[in-house]
Each structure stands twice: as structure tokens, then as C-alpha cells.
């Protein structure tokens, strides 16, 4: 906890300031003694006395107050242990919701009950068993031999499911997280209204406190919070409009560039049957798409419906986050499991061993667990975002960012697609849609002239990796990949053109053969090969089809960024 306090001090030093005064900190602890002790150790590192506040040279500590509720009243942190919550929880099971869930863990319940000699009926019972075993393990005690069959796995996965069950209804969620999340919101609003001088609200809770907040905010995590875990909720104030306007301008300019390049193909007038637009489930991708469409299809003539408003509504499609395997497969359960198994147990283990010094360095200084290359990939995304927001990275990051992290990110694209199954998970749905839409268009079964995808930087990386096209830099904001379908002598082929975030011109990319074109039947072969061991997927090999002309266009753009800049208030 002391190291965590030091890490928070390093991250927010300029914001918090050197001197502690009671009016800058609102600290709360769970009613459990270990949480209160942890908070005190944390505060000792976060606010060591400075200057005149050093009252004893050999004691670099100062008293800092915090608040705590009594255990039988503590609905801020431990509602799940209260009798009224337990009653609601049991009713949720008895109404039939629990029985279907119990079937999959019944053998685990029987095994645990037999060896632990405690009645095991629900996920909650296994949840409590996990808490006991993890506590003993944390204290360095030797666990009984029988427990090694179920701890840490599969008990860890059961606990993750239990967190969702604990908030299975609106009433259960209110009991579990209602008071805390409401306090976080109201404290934030008070600060915005200048009714509070607090710079930091600090809560010392339990592992499930962190998970309940993340569940309420619909943030997905595949690991359980460990001791010393920290969740920071930062309130940002937009003190400049530069980055927001720059983001909009970049996407608006991209729409104009696409319009100039493909004006003859698209024509002047927008109609719904000429465009198939898709966006990632992330808001920023959908906002970016809307801005691109504004400049790509401004209303003309009778379509101008409001003078002074050079815009018209254009529909687009988007999947739900939990189902978004077109753009977001890299965060879904199946892929995450396969990737980590490959990097820790499979052929990818060699890569993990090679980069271990960098993993160790980032873990040591960043106080975040680093297991494999994907963790550095995600770290690169976070740091790039912070730099884009105008924030200054800690001094220690300069040893690894931008290099060698930039190079490692490019390497990770290949690692993430090292097996056929991983490749299917990441890019299968998108590349299949691109192929089938192209075939449908050349068979004259579609009127679409343009299919537009608003995805992420890694979406472009995955497509280029699948097509085996070499690239030397990570896609930035407002980058664009154009897949043009051309017709020549009754044959159809694609060309891939790329515009990065820094240049207005598109570059025609080369395929591994050195050629600048890939025939549609060759792309069909590549996609079919991707699915050779999937029996239920059947695809036709036929390609229908007079010098060369552009017949159809598919484009992938990356989202705008840099909306907020200056941290004005932070919650932990």
C-alpha cells in the first residue's frame, strides 16, 4: 500500500500539491480494520510532511483523518454482507434465475463441499471460499492439497460471474453500489459548481468494491482485483477547445478528401441505397463517422432543408459492445483467453521471454501487472492518448516510449494473429463482409457504391496484417484505408490505398507478391483458407463479373481523438 501511495503521488503530484490540508482530501474507509490500516499506510506515502509540517525528524508521517461507518450500517462498502441484501439475493435465485446458472458449476460445488466440509449451493458460496483461499495465500500460508484442483482456477472465473449475479437486478445493484456511486456523482457535481474545495476523494474498500463500480459503468475486466489494486475516476475539464475542434476538423477534412477523390463514383446526391455505413460500438467512432459523412455528403439543391445548416441526416449501423466482433473482438472473452494462452503456454512464450526486461521495467515503474506483449500494446494506446490530450508522461516512460513500444505494437499485430483461430476472431467477420459485399456488388445484386467503416487504429492493423501488406507505423487518428474494387476485361481485383493521419494523399500499397492488385478470387481463396477447419461455414467460389474502371469502394477510417485536456479534479 505504501508503494501504491508513492505511485499515486508521482502521477498526480502537480495536481495535489505538496502540502496536505484537511480541505483538499475526503477519505473514507470500509468498516473492516484491514481497509482502515491499508488507508493509513497509503496516506503516509501520499502525504509525507514537508517543511514546517515535519514535527519529528525521524518520523516522516503526519496524522490524516478519514471517515468510516459502523459495520452494521456500512452500505457504502459491504452491502453484500447485510441481511436485507442477502434476502434479495436469495429471492433472485429462488425465482428461477439461479437454477440455470448452477447447472454449470454443480460438479465444482460438490467437490468443494466434500473437501471443505461446508454446504455449497450457490455461486456466492464459492465466492466466499475463494475469499478464504486467496486470503490465506496472500498471508503466505500453505493451502490444502485438495484446493489446488480448483484454486485459482476455475474459482477465479466463478467469482467473476458472481459479481454479475450480485447485480443481476436493478434493486440488487442499488443495494450493492447505489450509495457509493451516488456519492461519487454528487461530489463531482459539487466540485463543478465550486461548492467543494476537495481535490481528491479516496475510498479504501474491498476487491468487490472495484469490480462493482466497473460493472455499473459497464467496463469489462477479465481479472480479479488483487491487494493494492486501484481504480481512478478522473474528472476532466475542457479548458481549451483546440483538441475537440482539431478532432472534428481532421474527420471533416477526411470526408472532403474522400469526396474529391471519389466524386465521379459517388455522384452529387446521397440516397440510402448507395451507402452502407458501419461504426464500432464506441461512441467516439460513431461521432467520427457522423463528422466524415457531413462533409462527404453535404445536402445539395432541394435536399437543403435548413439554410445555414449544411448537413443532412445519414443512417449508420453499429453492434452492441458485447456482440461487436466486427471491430472489438480483441477485448471479447474468447480472443483474450486464446491470446494469453498462446503467449504464456504456446509458441508465443518465446516472444514473452524476449521482452521480459521491458515488461518488468514497465511493471516496476507503472505499478501495473505486465504479463505479455498485449499489455504493452494496451499501455501504448493509453500513453498515446495521454500525449494526444496534452498531458505530460512521467520521466521514466521516456526509456520505452515512443520506442521500443512503437515497434512492439507492430509486432503484436502479428502475434495477435499468429493462429488461424485468433485471426478468425479478430478479422474474420469484417474481411468476410468486405469480400461478400464486393462479390455481391460485381454480380449487380447491390446498389451500394460505398461501404464505410469507422473503426479503430488496430482495425486497420489487423486488415493489413491479414492481407500480408507491410507497414511501418501504427495507424493514427483520422487514418483511412481504401479498398477499391476495379473491373478490367470482365475480371475484378482490389487495390488497397492508405492515407495516414499526417498526409492528405493516398498511397497505393503493394501485396507480398510485389503486385499492386489482388484479384477477387485470390481474396476469396484467402478467406476460404481462414475457414478451412470450420465445417459450418460454406462459401461459393464463383466470381461473377469493360478497360479498367472503379466499380465499388470500401473504406475504413479511424476515429478522432483529443477531446479533453486538463485534469482539474480526481477521484480514487
Structure description:
It is a single chain. The chain is an alpha/beta fold and 572 residues long. It folds into four domains: 123 residues, Phosphoglycerate mutase-like (Rossmann fold); 69 residues, no CATH class; 218 residues, Phosphoglycerate mutase-like (Rossmann fold, 3-Layer(aba) Sandwich), CATH 3.40.50; 88 residues, no CATH class. The chain is 46% helix and 12% strand. The protein has 19 helices and 13 strands. Strands 5, 6, 7, 8, 9, 10, 11 and 12 form an eight-stranded mixed beta sheet that branches. A five-stranded mixed beta sheet has the order 2-1-3-13-4. Helix 7 packs across helix 8, helix 17 crosses helix 18 and helix 17 packs antiparallel against helix 19. The two termini are 14 Å apart. The C terminus is likely disordered.
CATH architect. name of the largest domain: 3-Layer(aba) Sandwich
What kind of sheet is the major sheet? 8 strands, mixed
User: Approximately what portion of the residues adopt beta-strand conformation?
Assistant: 5-15%
Which CATH first-tier class of the largest domain would you pick? Alpha Beta
Q: Domain count, please report it.
A: 4
Strand tally: 13
Gross morphology is: globular
CATH superfamily of the largest domain: Phosphoglycerate mutase-like
- The chain-level mean pLDDT equals 83
Helix content: 40-55%
Count, helices: 19
Remind me, CATH topology of the largest domain? Rossmann fold
Distance between the terminal alpha carbons, to the nearest Å? 14 Å
- What does the radius of gyration come to? 27 Å
Low-confidence stretches: 239-243, 536-546, 560-572
Q: Which structural class is indicated by helix and strand composition?
A: alpha/beta
Amino acid at each position: 500500500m505504501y508503494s501504491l501511495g508513492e505511485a499515486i503521488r508521482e502521477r498526480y503530484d502537480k495536481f495535489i500539491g505538496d502540502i496536505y490540508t484537511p480541505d483538499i482530501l475526503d477519505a473514507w474507509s470500509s468498516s473492516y480494520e484491514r481497509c482502515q490500516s491499508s488507508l493509513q499506510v497509503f496516506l503516509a506515502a501520499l502525504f509525507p510532511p514537508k517543511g514546517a509540517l515535519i514535527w519529528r525528524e525521524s518520523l516522516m508521517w503526519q496524522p490524516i483523518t478519514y471517515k468510516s461507518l459502523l459495520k452494521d450500517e456500512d452500505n457504502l462498502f459491504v452491502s453484500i454482507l447485510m441481511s436485507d441484501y442477502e434476502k434479495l439475493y436469495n429471492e433472485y435465485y429462488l425465482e428461477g434465475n439461479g437454477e440455470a446458472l448452477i447447472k454449470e458449476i454443480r460438479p465444482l460445488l460438490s467437490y468443494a463441499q466434500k473437501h471443505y466440509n461446508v454446504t455449497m449451493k450457490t455461486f456466492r458460496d464459492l465466492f466466499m471460499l475463494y475469499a478464504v483461499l486467496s486470503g490465506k495465500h496472500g498471508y503466505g500460508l500453505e493451502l490444502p492439497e485438495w484446493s489446488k484442483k480448483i484454486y485459482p482456477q476455475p474459482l477465479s472465473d466463478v467469482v467473476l460471474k458472481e459479481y454479475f449475479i450480485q447485480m443481476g437486478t436493478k434493486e440488487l445493484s442499488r443495494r450493492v453500489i447505489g450509495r457509493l456511486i451516488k456519492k461519487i456523482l454528487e461530489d463531482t457535481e459539487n466540485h463543478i459548481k465550486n461548492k467543494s474545495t476537495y481535490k481528491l476523494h479516496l475510498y479504501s474498500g474491498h476487491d468487490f468494491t472495484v469490480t462493482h463500480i466497473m460493472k455499473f459503468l459497464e467496463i469489462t475486466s477479465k481479472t480479479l482485483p488483487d491487494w493494492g489494486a486501484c481504480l481512478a475516476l478522473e474528472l476532466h475539464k475542457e479548458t481549451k477547445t483546440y483538441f475537440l475542434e482539431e478532432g472534428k476538423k481532421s474527420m471533416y477534412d477526411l470526408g472532403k478528401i474522400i469526396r474529391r477523390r471519389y466524386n465521379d463514383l459517388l455522384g452529387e446526391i446521397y440516397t440510402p441505397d448507395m451507402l452502407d455505413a458501419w461504426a464500432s460500438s464506441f461512441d467516439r467512432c460513431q461521432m467520427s463517422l457522423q463528422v466524415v459523412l457531413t462533409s462527404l455528403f453535404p445536402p445539395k439543391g432541394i435536399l437543403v432543408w435548413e439554410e445555414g445548416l449544411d448537413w443532412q441526416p445519414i443512417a449508420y449501423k453499429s453492434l452492441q459492445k458485447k456482440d461487436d466482433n466486427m471491430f472489438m473482438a480483441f477485448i471479447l472473452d474468447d480472443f483474450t483467453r486464446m491470446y494469453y494462452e498462446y503467449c504464456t503456454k504456446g509458441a508465443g512464450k518465446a516472444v514473452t521471454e524476449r521482452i521480459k526486461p521491458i515488461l518488468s521495467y514497465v511493471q516496476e515503474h507503472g505499478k501495473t501487472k505486465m504479463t505479455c506483449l498485449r499489455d504493452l500494446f494496451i499501455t501504448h494506446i493509453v500513453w498515446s492518448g495521454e500525449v494526444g490530450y496534452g498531458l505530460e508522461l512521467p520521466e521514466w516512460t521516456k526509456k520505452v516510449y515512443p520506442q521500443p513500444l512503437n515497434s512492439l505494437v507492430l509486432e503484436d499485430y502479428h502475434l495477435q494473429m499468429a493462429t488461424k483461430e485468433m485471426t478468425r476472431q479478430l478479422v474474420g467477420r469484417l474481411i468476410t463482409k468486405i469480400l461478400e459485399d464486393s462479390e455481391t456488388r460485381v454480380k449487380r445484386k447491390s446498389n451500394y457504391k460505398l461501404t464505410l467503416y469507422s473503426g479503430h487504429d488496430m482495425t486497420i492493423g489487423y486488415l493489413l496484417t491479414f492481407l500480408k501488406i507491410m507497414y511501418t507505423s501504427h495507424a493514427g487518428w483520422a487514418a483511412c484505408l481504401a479498398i477499391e474494387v476495379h473491373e478490367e476485361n470482365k475480371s475484378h481485383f482490389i487495390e488497397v490505398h492508405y492515407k495516414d493521419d499526417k498526409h492528405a494523399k493516398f498511397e497505393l500499397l503493394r501485396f507480398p507478391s510485389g503486385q499492386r492488385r489482388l484479384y477477387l478470387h485470390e481474396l476469396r481463396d484467402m478467406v476460404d483458407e481462414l475457414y478451412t477447419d470450420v465445417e459450418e461455414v460454406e462459401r461459393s467460389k464463383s466470381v461473377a463479373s469493360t478497360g479498367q474502371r472503379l466499380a465499388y469502394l470500401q473504406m475504413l477510417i479511424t476515429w478522432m481523438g483529443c477531446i479533453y485536456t486538463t485534469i482539474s479534479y480526481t477521484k480514487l
